[in-house]
Amino acid sequence: MKRLVILGGGESGIGTAILGLRNGYEVFVSDKGEIKKEYKNVLGNFGINWEENNHSEDKVLNADVVMKSPGIPDSIPLIVAIRKKGIPVISEIEFASKYTDARIIGITGSNGKTTTTMLTNHILVEGGLSVGMAGNIGDSFAKMVAENDFENYVLEISSFQLDGIVDFKPHIAIITNITPDHLDRYDYKFERYVASKFRIAENQSAEDYLIYDADDTVIVDWLEKHPVKSQLMPFSIQQELEQGAFLKNNKIIIKINNETIEMTTSALALEGKHNLKNTMAASTAAKLIGIRKETIRESIANFQGAEHRLEKVLKIQHVLYVNDSKATNVNATYYALDSMSAPTVWIVGGVDKGNNYKELMPLVREKVKAIICLGTDNSKIVDAFGNVVDLLVETYAMEEAVKVAYKIAERGDIVLLSPACASFDLFKNYEDRGNQFKEAIKNL
């Protein structure tokens, strides 16, 4: 009996444990921290051995294969020791893909992954297909494969998950965009992060497709130097394309093998330029799979966006409150500010990931009337924008930030939470931050 050791007892770890057990592995789960009670219950129900607050080397280094959680860096001594022994270290996406023959649409990118994944899934469901949505969103892919028999999977995949693939091959791969993010995991070398994202296409063949942003110079330059075997399906809002999706006369036009779909941009449920691109990517994928034009049109018109991503919360005294807590880097906040259609009171701050706020300067000058900092250390934001806006206030709790915004905002304004930072200084995660924002608004 082969021994599967799983490092990390979170969503992906537990899913892999169940799938491993069902496929005849002896399974052991090891977590350096504490495992959540709900996950311990699952492990107990399945009779799976586990440990927490420790990785016992003797129980790990006798594995035939190791699945490590995407949160564990490759550089830690334990991973180095496992590899030295010649034991393969793979990701949950790789492990799960071995146990399904389903068609896979894999979606990666620095921003827009979640919305594109949800929208693609929505169109496929509306088209009547058997489809599961997993990966970085909802249930783990492994758990879905263990418990269901879907014919299609739409997977949101991070660069960390792609780092652990060997044979994983999506029929359709989407790269939404590539901007500097998580560089601490890639020795601060941007090209290593880019290479990691492009692993989504490395096992593809000429029957497969790569959908990508043709306006993203990082992606285009990389493809010129590192051609892929799959068929290229670009999308663009700047240029007309022979094949792929583009914008013309306020219409999205999708051309695939002499077939054309046209959709007016005014019909889109999602606002903002970035969502035009997310819609192009999802619609192209749906068309490649054979979803009818009418279904695609209807689906993009009635789609409800992702929570914590430009989510309209409430209008109070003609002021709209927008929750974009999922914007954890400058690029995501750039999209948010770009889509603001009224004077904006901007709530920003948190744990800085080495942000360069200069990129936001033109948008701040054009759109932002006041800035409310929300973080334990706001010095970089104050330095960047202190002289640019008329009013900048520092706050240290969500309730306080929302109360200040309520006082500042006037009829017709927008209050936007788009932090451009991670949330771990004052909140558990970006969901907690977004939920506290919504709660504080309801308590006004």
TrEMBL record:
Molecular function via GO: UDP-N-acetylmuramoylalanine-D-glutamate ligase activity
Catalysis: reaction(s): UDP-N-acetyl-alpha-D-muramoyl-L-alanine + D-glutamate + ATP = UDP-N-acetyl-alpha-D-muramoyl-L-alanyl-D-glutamate + ADP + phosphate + H(+)
Alphabetical list of PANTHER family matching this protein: UDP-N-ACETYLMURAMOYLALANINE--D-GLUTAMATE LIGASE (PTHR43692:SF1)
Protein family per UniProt: Belongs to the MurCDEF family.
Pathway participation: Cell wall biogenesis; peptidoglycan biosynthesis
Protein name as it appears in the record: UDP-N-acetylmuramoylalanine--D-glutamate ligase
Location(s) in or outside the cell: Cytoplasm
UniProt keywords, alphabetically: ATP-binding, Cell cycle, Cell division, Cell shape, Cell wall biogenesis/degradation, Cytoplasm, Ligase, Nucleotide-binding, Peptidoglycan synthesis
